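Q: What does the assembled structure look like for these inputs?
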Amino acid sequence: MNTQNEYKKVWNFFFISQWREEEKWLNDMAREGWHLVHVNALVRYVFKRGTPREFIYKPDLPENLPHGLGREEYYNFLTECGIRIVCEKKQWIYLQKRTADGPFDADDDMFAKLRITNKVYGYAIRNMCRLLRAFTIIIILNLCGASIAGATMSFAATDFFSSIAIGVGIGAITALTFIFVPIITKLRKQMNETIDELGVRH
Amino acid sequence: MNTSNNALTEAVYYILLSVLKPMHGYGIMQQISALSGGRLNISAGTLYGALSSLLEKGWIEQVATPCDSRKKEYHITAEGRRLLVQEIARLQELVRNGETILSNN
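A:
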């Protein structure tokens, strides 16, 4: 095949709560013959030209269960089921499966839907906590800096440290209000809908 | 997965039936599909979650595969077998009641 080494880079961004949109987009690309090869830290997707519809794709998060089977076993298990891990992006893994082997989950598999939604929800909360922790540490360090500077009467330094503390504080509140709260609310809604359906037919 | 009246989900019921003999994960998926005549296809993620929680409950256990130590097989425990028998009795009750009441109305 002369098209074997044709690559395409696409910039695209999805919020954590949009993993279903991301899944749909990756499969639309695959239908046109563009198969995922790599995703970089945030937004750049690399595709390789191949046979249209040969594979299907799914973003997933590794299982992180406190008991039973661990991460490595999950990977081995997926491989055994004919699923290949194409690449990893932060904690996300991108799964590939032959279209002929059937879908990743049946459409009515509410339990599978709940598992993935729950994993994404946990991931969003962990990220929010990590960010808040980082913001808090920066604010505390700057407040310490400001009070030390205040004690030594260097007022320019006091202003400097306290304005950083205030700036980071505003940043944290903004990130929380406009990014994390909407994402987590949306994920909760998705989870509740799935739980409702699970109650009717599992 | 296990409500107060001990009803098992369909997936768990078929998993327990499949591991009466030691079997690896992919084998369980195929077995479930075959047993249900292709009606029930459980995803790798769902099976993985179910196996993890059954291991924790002690209803199944992991056994080493003789030929490949990386490949794990799962086998029902005495407790798992007891619950399976109990579940079959419960299912029989459901069917019996359904048939009796339907035929009388």
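Chain B has one domain: 10-103.
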